[in-house]
Every structure is written in structure tokens, then in C-alpha cells.
Amino acid sequence: MYKNFSKVYDIMMEYADYDGWKDIIEEKIERYGDAPKTILDLGCGTGEVLLRLLPNYEMTGVDLSKEMVEIANRKIDAASFYVQDMRELKLDKKHDVVISLFDTVNHLISMEGLKKTFSSVWKNLNEDGLYIFDVVTRELMDEMFPGGNFIDDRGDIMIIWEHEEDMEEGVDYVDTTFFVKQKNGMFKKITEEYVKKIFTVDEIMNTAKEAGFQVVEVEENSELAGERIFFTLKK
Q1: Which CATH class is domain 139-197?
Q2: CA distance 25 to 59
Q3: CA–CA separation, 118 vs 128, rounded Å?
Q4: How far is CA 125 from the centre of its chain?
Q5: DSSP readout, 82-116?
Q6: pLDDT tens digits, one per residue of 151-164
Q7: How many CA atoms lie within 13 A of 99 on its CB side?
Q8: Average pLDDT, stretch 48-77?
Q9: Cα–Cα dist 124/119, whole Å
Q10: Contact at 8 Å (CB) between 175 and 190?
Q11: How far apart are CA 111 and CA 124, in angstroms?
């Protein structure tokens, strides 16, 4: 996943409020954490939030995309990176906090995948550790893709999103086409397909409790990147 997307990810996310994401994580850590020292960024992408947390914590990044991890590794020397599946983490040590941002959890396209991930995170957290993550809502997906498609023309890059929803399974299929302007003035075409599942709050809370977590906070946020819900779980 995201083999091609990695080539344009930082361009597409140029205006993302990474500092805002970092602030939310630190606020929740201050509210519910026990002076944590280590953070695992699970689904770290190209490492932008990890980079901003690095001055205050010992950071580790994990992503399923080898290409994303390679980009993050080139940016950041003072962190450890691994290419692994979040459902089956095999790390050398446990962490005080695990985070999964930018609706990483929505890429788990089944309840079984969600259960495995919560179990995997539990095993890689220290006692009293926190798991902080966000998910997008059905309302946001409907808002993003009215009529099924969305076009974002930024001049040097044009993004065409084609969306289809499997209402029975609660799964969304998105075909993305990027046209990126090159130095010679020509445009390069890059395509990527990804799948998301929209979990309900009850599904997430019940699965988290089954894995042994305490759900300490469920908070809606519409300021960072559209309507989404942040969960804070405690081991």
C-alpha cells in the first residue's frame, strides 16, 4: 500500500497542520499519561508528526509502506523505523505511548483486523501506557465525495479522487490519480488505490475493551482535517 502515493504524499500534505496534531497528542499525554518517555508512531507515514514529537520523546516509527519508511528515515536520524503490519507487531521493546494518526485505523478493513491491532498494540505497550488514535466518520466521507468524485487542482499538482462505497460492509474504495508537474513542464501521472472501513464508536469501544483496554476518552474534532473522532485507550 502507498507505494506510489509515497512519491507525492508530502506534496499533497503541504498544508497539513502537523503542529496541531502534535499539540493534540501532547495534550492527551499530559491529561492521561504517566510522564511517558517513549512513543511508537504506528502508521508513521513520512514522519512529519514523529519529527515534531522527537525533541521531547524517544521515538519509533512503524509503517506498512516500505517507501514511506524510507522517506521518513532519510528525514530523521534520531529515531528507529520498521516496516511492519500493525496487526502483528514484533518490536524489541515496549513503549509508553502508541499513536496512530490521520485515520490509519480506518485502513483496517475488517473487525478481525481491528481486534488483531488492538491486541498487538496491547502487547507492545508498557503498563499504564496509552494508545491514541483517530478515525474518520461516515459524514466526512460523504462530505469529501459528493456524487462519488472529488477534484483538487493546485496548479502544480492535480488530484482526482474516485470513490465507491460498499454500504453493506461499510467499506470505501478510493482510486486516486495524481498529475504532478515536472521541471520540464510536463505532468507525470501517478495512481494509487486504497480502502477504508468506517467503524462505529461502539464497535471501536467494545473491541478495545475486549482487548483489555480502558477507554478513557472519546473526543470529536473538526478543526484539524475534517470531522474525525479521537480515542484514548489505557492499558
Answers
A1: mainly beta
A2: 13
A3: 15
A4: 18
A5: EE--TTS---SS-EEEEEE-TTGGGG--SHHHHHH
A6: 777 777 788 878 88
A7: 26
A8: 92
A9: 9
A10: no
A11: 20
Q: Half-sphere exposure of residue 128, counting CA atoms within 13 Å on the CB side?
A: 7
pLDDT band per the 50, 70, 90 thresholds, residue 12: low
Q: How confident is the model at residue 142 (pLDDT cuts 50, 70, 90)?
A: confident
Burial class (CB in 10 A: 0-12, 13-18, 19+), 10: middle
Determine the pLDDT at residue 165.
85
For 76-129, the pLDDT digits (tens) are 999 999 999 999 999 999 999 999 999 999 999 899 999 999 999 999 999 999
The percent of residues in the chain predicted with pLDDT above 70, rounded, is 94
Residue 80, beta-bridge partner list: 60
Which of the four pLDDT bands, split at 50, 70 and 90, describes residue 226?
confident
- Copy the grid coordinates of residue 77: 536520524
5-138+198-234: CATH class? alpha beta
Residue 68, amino acid: M
Domain boundaries, the chain: 5-138+198-234, 139-197
CA–CA dist 78, 61 (Å, integer): 11
Grid coordinates standing for 120? 498487538
Question: Cα-Cα-Cα-Cα dihedral of 56, 60, 61, 64, to 10°?
Answer: -160
